[in-house]
């Protein structure tokens, strides 16, 4: 993968040259895999014709994991070894996982939580990789060939650690990750909205256990996530629980039901709720273990009354996301419905009322994310459909920054920022009278310039002479929708400006990105030590510089003994400033600043007196 890669215009390759790429929706409840065949995206089915793969994995001692429907079917018998909703733990620590309220045997491990199972302690990455491996096998069986790569979707709010964990899970499953794509963006792409009118779109995603709402802004074919909101503990399951509770309340014996019977009630409640999406009335029915048949009639109308408070909670999240984006419901051009639970007619109605328009439901809400991911994967693999000329939304896979004193990197745009993006930061001069500044643009996660990739260098000239630290130079990084990085440096008082444009994508392969990221993690400690040393060295150099200038200007303010001490400290700092011993450098800096304290105070007095001389008192107030 190249950074910010934009596919080139060109002919659609001949069928035999088509490269097989898939889109994967790695969901909390269900996962899917889709591909583009004969120009049409389609979800791939398993041997039994099912499209959804429940995101559930059961672990046994000395046996391969059981993934999907079979794992879910035996969940009640072996809850501790049947991992569901593992997505909630991706990139999370044990404490965070415990706080989620889910009852697994969590093991503290450096970085990410582990789950204790009959097959050993497993990280969420491994569990996810088992789900992904199953989808990969499904795709290869259906397509009859190896895959060149996959686009995997993640929630828009996923942070770096969660995204990295998803990437690692895919690698572990033997998938080449073409890109991670935000779920709402994938859904919008499935609807072809990237060709629609520019403006704001909302994506309402009600899944099995989570609710996400995203506000996207479309400009020149590129989506930008402008706000996200939601509730990680609100989904179809909660509606099931409402029905189950209500049904049980009508049966006096229910309070004595076994765990097994309660579980059966939940399953029946879900089935009833799903039937109510198409029928006006049904019943919650299932056999108890002792053979008694439970059958509680339920109308859609009654269910909708029960469901109203939950739906209102989702609407409140949506209103908040809009507010965060500084928008009103009427500013939204289209609303995309995602997630199986948006099949409930009451949800569609409520969302339609909030936004004052009929939401988009033509595509299957379970499949829409996977379909959009497949379109994106197809494009990234180099299989352009006729007439397809859309730009790809992307994130920056490695941070962009500047070299600062001492060969250190100051990050300006952090990795995973969605493009287009612009960030600015102010820098200052290092020396008195410095009239030019050299700007070195680098990319990477490491603290030292030498470990990052150099992208461009340019100079800002014509800075008016000022004392060190007085100039204000604003450096702006801007990555546009075409993936071009423009860097501008501007001296604020005079407006002198210099700039450069670079294409950071050039020549950075997926492997390189992987290696650089892995190194940045491995090297974090060494980097922190190196940064500290460099910072001390820079401080030493700066101090030596300014003490020398001060001695030249106001050396007469020191008596002989004082001068000797300062000279000695100066010599020591000069000797130490390139040393590798951080303590030696720090010691020399301390001694030099202490030995010049009184001198600095006297200089200050002198300059104030000079400034005041010849002015009347009333001018000074
Ligand atoms: P996730 O994104 O969390 O993996 P999904 O998008 O697959 O989840 O949604 C799963 C939820 O969708 C479940 O709660 C399921 O009951 C619900 N669902 C699926 N089909 C229907 C339907 N016809 N009516 C109502 N809810 C449905
Ligand atoms: Mg989903």
Describe the model:
The chain has three domains: 23-235 and 307-394, Nucleotidyltransferase, domain 5 (2-Layer Sandwich), CATH 3.30.420; 397-508, Substrate Binding Domain Of DNAk, Chain A, domain 1, CATH 2.60.34.10; 523-612, Substrate Binding Domain Of Dnak, Chain:A, Domain 2 (Up-down Bundle), CATH 1.20.1270. By secondary structure, the chain is α+β, with helices and mostly antiparallel strands. The model is unreliable at 1-16 and 614-621 (pLDDT under 50). Strands 1, 2, 3, 4, 11 and 12 form a six-stranded mixed sheet that branches. It has a four-stranded mixed sheet with strand order 15-14-13-18, sandwiched between helices. Strands 20-19-22-23 form a four-stranded antiparallel sheet. It is elongated. The chain starts with 20 loop residues before the first strand and ends in a 9-residue tail after the last helix. The chain has 15 helices and 26 strands. The structure holds adenosine-5'-diphosphate (ADP) and magnesium ion. The site of adenosine-5'-diphosphate (ADP) has 21 residues, from helix 6 and helix 7.
Summarize the structure.
With 621 residues, the protein is of the alpha+beta class.
Strand percentage lies at 15-25%
Judged by helices, strands and strand pairing, the structural class is alpha+beta
Give the total of beta strands.
Answer: 26
CATH topology of the largest domain: Nucleotidyltransferase, domain 5
Low-confidence stretches: 1-16, 614-621
**First-residue to last-residue Cα separation:** 64 Å
Indicate the CATH architecture of the largest domain.
Answer: 2-Layer Sandwich
Q: What's the domain count?
A: 3
User: How helical, in percent, are the residues?
Assistant: 25-40%
Task: Compute the number of helices.
Answer: 15
Using the coordinates above, name the CATH class of the largest domain. Alpha Beta
């Amino acid at each position: 993968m190249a950074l910010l890669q934009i596919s080139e215009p060109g002919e659609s390759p001949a069928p035999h040259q088509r490269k097989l790429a898939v889109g994967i929706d790695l969901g909390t409840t269900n996962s899917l895999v889709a591909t583009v065949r004969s120009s049409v995206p389609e979800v791939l089915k398993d041997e039994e014709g099912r499209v959804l793969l429940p995101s559930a994995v059961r672990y046994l001692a000395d046996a391969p994991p059981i993934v999907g429907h079979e794992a879910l079917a035996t969940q009640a018998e072996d809850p501790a070894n049947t991992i569901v909703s593992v997505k909630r733990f991706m990139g999370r620590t044990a404490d965070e996982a415990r706080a989620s309220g889910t009852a697994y045997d969590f093991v503290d491990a450096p970085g990410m939580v582990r789950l204790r199972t009959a097959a050993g302690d497993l990280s969420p990455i491994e569990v996810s990789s088992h789900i992904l491996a199953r989808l990969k096998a499904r795709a290869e069986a259906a397509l009859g060939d190896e895959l060149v790569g996959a686009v995997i979707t993640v929630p828009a709010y996923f942070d770096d650690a969660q995204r990295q964990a998803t990437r690692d899970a895919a690698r572990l499953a033997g998938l080449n990750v073409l890109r991670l794509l935000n779920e709402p963006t994938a859904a919008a792409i499935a609807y072809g909205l990237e060709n629609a009118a520019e403006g704001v779109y909302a994506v309402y995603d009600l899944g099995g256990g989570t609710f996400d709402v995203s506000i996207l802004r479309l400009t020149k074919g590129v989506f930008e996530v402008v706000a996200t909101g939601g509730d990680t503990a609100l989904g179809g399951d909660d509606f099931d629980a409402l029905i189950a509770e209500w049904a049980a309340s009508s049966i006096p014996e229910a309070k004595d039901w076994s765990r097994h019977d309660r579980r059966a009630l939940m399953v029946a409640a879900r089935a009833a709720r799903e039937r109510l999406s198409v029928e006006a009335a049904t019943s919650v029915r299932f056999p108890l273990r002792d053979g008694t048949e439970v059958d509680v009639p339920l109308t859609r109308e009654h269910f909708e009354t029960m469901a109203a408070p939950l739906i209102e909670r989702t609407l409140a999240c949506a209103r908040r996301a809009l507010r965060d984006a500084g928008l009103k419901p009427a500013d939204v051009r289209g609303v995309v419905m995602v997630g199986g639970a948006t099949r409930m007619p009451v949800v569609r109605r409520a969302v339609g009322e909030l936004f004052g328009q009929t939401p988009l439901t033509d595509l299957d809400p379970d499949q829409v994310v996977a379909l959009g991911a497949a379109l994106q994967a197809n494009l990234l693999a180099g299989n352009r459909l006729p007439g397809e000329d859309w730009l790809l939304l992307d994130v920056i896979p490695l941070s962009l920054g500047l070299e600062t004193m001492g060969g250190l990197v100051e990050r300006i745009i952090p990795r995973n920022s969605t493009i287009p993006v612009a960030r600015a930061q102010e820098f200052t001069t290092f020396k008195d009278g410095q009239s030019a500044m050299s700007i070195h643009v680098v990319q990477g996660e490491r603290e030292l310039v030498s470990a990052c990739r150099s992208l461009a260098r340019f100079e800002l000239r014509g800075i008016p002479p000022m004392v060190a630290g007085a100039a204000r130079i604003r450096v702006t990084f801007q990555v546009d929708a075409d993936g071009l990085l423009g860097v501008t440096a501007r001296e604020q008082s005079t407006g002198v400006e210099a700039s450069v444009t670079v294409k950071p994508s050039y020549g950075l392969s997926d492997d390189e990105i992987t290696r650089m990221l892995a190194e940045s993690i491995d090297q974090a400690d060494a980097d922190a030590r190196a940064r500290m040393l460099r910072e001390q060295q820079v401080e030493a150099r700066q101090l030596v510089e300014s003490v020398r200038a001060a001695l030249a200007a106001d050396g007469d303010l020191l008596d002989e003994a004082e001068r000797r001490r300062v000279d000695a400290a100066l010599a020591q700092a000069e000797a130490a400033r390139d040393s590798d011993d951080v303590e030696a450098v720090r010691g020399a800096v301390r001694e030099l600043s202490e030995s010049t304290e009184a001198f600095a105070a006297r200089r200050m007095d002198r300059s104030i007196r000079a400034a005041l001389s010849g002015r009347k008192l009333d001018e000074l107030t």
